[in-house]
Task: structure prediction
Amino acid sequence: MNAVEIEGLRVRYQDLEVLKGVDLDIPAKVCFAIMGPSGCGKSTLLKTMNRLIELNEGVKIEGEIRLFGESIFKVDVTRLRREVGMVFQHPNPFPHMSIYDNVAFAVKCNGIAKGKEIDRVVEWALKKAALWEEVKERLKNKANQLSGGQMQRLCIARALALKPKVLLMDEPTANLDPIAANKIEDLIQELKKEYTIVIVTHSPAQAARVAEYVAFLYMGRVIEVGEVNEIFERPKNELTEKYVTGRIG
Amino acid sequence: MLRELKNRIFICYLLISAILVIFPLLHILFSVFINGVPVVMKYGIDFLTGTLPAPNKPDGGIFPAIYGTFLMVFIASLIGIPLAVLAGVFVAEYPNNTISKATRSLLLIMMEFPTILVGLFVMAIFVVPTGSFSALAGSFALAIVMLPYVATYTEQAMRSVPRQFKEGAYALGLRKCRVVFSITLKIAKKGVVTGLLIGMAKVAGETAPLIFTAGNAWRSTGSVFEPNGAIPLWIYYLIQQPYANYHEIAWGAAFVLMVFFLAIFLPIRFSMVRS
Result:
């Protein structure tokens, strides 16, 4: 069964149609990259998958998205967002909370663990996000004392702690230095063995490095989708070829 | 040459305007200091702990007024702050709602509203039915004066929290209530606290809303249901008396009020400059 199935998805902000009929099937336990130039609708597509897009006023959504066969529009939105974790372009750990609380807070609020069990979940999530060794001595420190790359891994830990089925990543390395970005990419390689990862990137090179499948989005439409080798070595569409060779973007 | 001269004249003009603007403030601070400090020195600690002396007797103090000010600011904060913070949160979280738009405009009007009218309003709905001036009525009036400051600062602080933190919180499956009170409001804490302190400093110096509500009293029974004094009320009434020592005490009270005000206000100013 596919992790995510998108059918005829149209998203409109007031008068502006951002997604103009998107169809995509995202298999489970792979890294699926959505690439395209700025303004093509890739972040909108990602934010529709956990219905975060609904925070914007005047958004209209048509079409269907199914998460493991179940329509995301028919389940409780808070449950959906627990099952579909998200990591953002700007690392956004809560600045007023400690490293520990950043991970533990949503675990407590969502009733995932209680008492001592929370400690175990926090340690597990930080280990999964390859951050534990760097922060285990200072869990009570404020999260905004971490470096950009560490903050981003903390955000990944925070999402993983809720045991999601799918992890959405919206240009997770766009604001990081190359070394920190490499660490995140290595982490994605590890995580995709257990989770379905959907990553949005404006860098074809990054898509080629981390993903098994790639969709090329252009002006609100999926131009081409396929396995990573096919897209980069034998693109069927002229626009895709232009994009992956750096002639548009 | 002529252009250079024009330029210099213009700069001089700007400088003089700036000095003219801050001159009254500096003059107030200076005269309160010059006239108030000797009084406080002369009366000693009694000035803060004693009660109003008989006319032309050089002792006593303004304790009932200090007590009244603290009491009424405290009760006004208890009533006003929770309401104002919630109103600010509502306006910030639902900016396009009709009630919220109306609330925002009303808050701005309230901020500029003549405070003596607030006093009249509270007199009509509270003092007349209960048949007596009281500290409680004064506190209600002060709470109304405080509301728009606290609410507006809360709203601005909430709105200045970067969207990414709210999105991050919603993406973790948190409900709106949690996001607002555990994330946004906590991140906005500093701005909200600034609003609270500014609101409190503002009402601590208010006279007009207290005239028809707290009444005034030279002796305090300590009860919130009795008329009560306050430092600005005392200054207002003391300078109308024909006794020299009352005028002295009014200057001393003005100095005490200024110290309270600056003690609240200066730390806010400095913390704003630092951030």
About this structure: The interface with chain A takes residues 96, 162, 164-175, 178, 182-183, 186-187, 189 of chain B (CB under 8 Å).
